[in-house]
Amino acid sequence: MRRSIKITISALATVIGIGIINAVRVDNAVSEASEYQDDISAHAYYQFGVVPDSIVFDIWNVGWNASQAEVLGVFLRFSEKMKDREFREVRLAYRGEAKFVLDGDDFQDIGQQFSYQNPVYIVRTFPEKLRTPDGGRAFSTWSGGLLGVVGRQMEDVNELGERWYLDDMR
Q1: What contacts 57, CB < 8 A, 6 or more positions away?
Q2: From which domain of life does this come (predicted)?
Q3: In the prediction, which pLDDT does 8 show?
Q4: Most buried one in 24, 40, 84, 116, CB count within 10 A?
């Protein structure tokens, strides 16, 4: 009986420790990034709680008044908060289910460019950087005339929101 109590206490302490580490190392940056977004609830954590080179940006709730631009803005501000950290990948999830994967180098680049780069450029080129969880390309890379390319990229941005969380909210 005493052995099982010790194992239970040890397991509980481990889970609490993992939660604290995730909160301090990753989730606090999401809280800061979404400080003025009451309609968006997002969290970040290490994949499986313990994989330090893979983080999950997980949307849990989006209010009806929040736009796709606001949701993406929280993610971009989060990347800026994490710009000095290196990760292998960042998973974009909705309620625990990964929908897209972003290469860690791309995540870091976005965070570093966020303060000076045109935000429209960052947003419209964001989808082409994403992969599906199984490794395939999530969106195409467009070429051709500027207006045609920008139009297709913005269509991809809208589809990104639908596939990431909107379809599951309906």
Answers
A1: 30, 42, 44, 75, 78, 90, 91, 92, 93
A2: Bacteria
A3: 74
A4: 40
- d(C-alpha 38, C-alpha 19), whole Å: 23
CA-closest candidate to residue 164, choices 75, 46, 86 = 75
**Number of domains observed in the structure of the chain:** 1
**Domain range for 40:** 2-169
pTM, whole model, 2 decimals?
A: 0.85
Strands 89-94 and 51-62: parallel
User: In whole angstroms, how far apart are CA 25 and each of 40, 49, 55, 57?
Assistant: 21, 11, 10, 13
DSSP 135: S
Alpha helices by DSSP H, listed for the chain, are: 2-22, 28-33, 68-81, 104-113, 119-125, 146-161, 167-169
Q: What is the pLDDT of residues 110-165, one digit of tens each?
A: 999 999 988 889 999 999 999 999 999 999 888 788 778 888 999 999 999 999 99
Q: Residue 38 in contact with residue 14, Cβ under 8 Å?
A: no
Residue 71 or 142, more confident: 71
End-to-end C-alpha distance for the chain, whole angstroms: 49
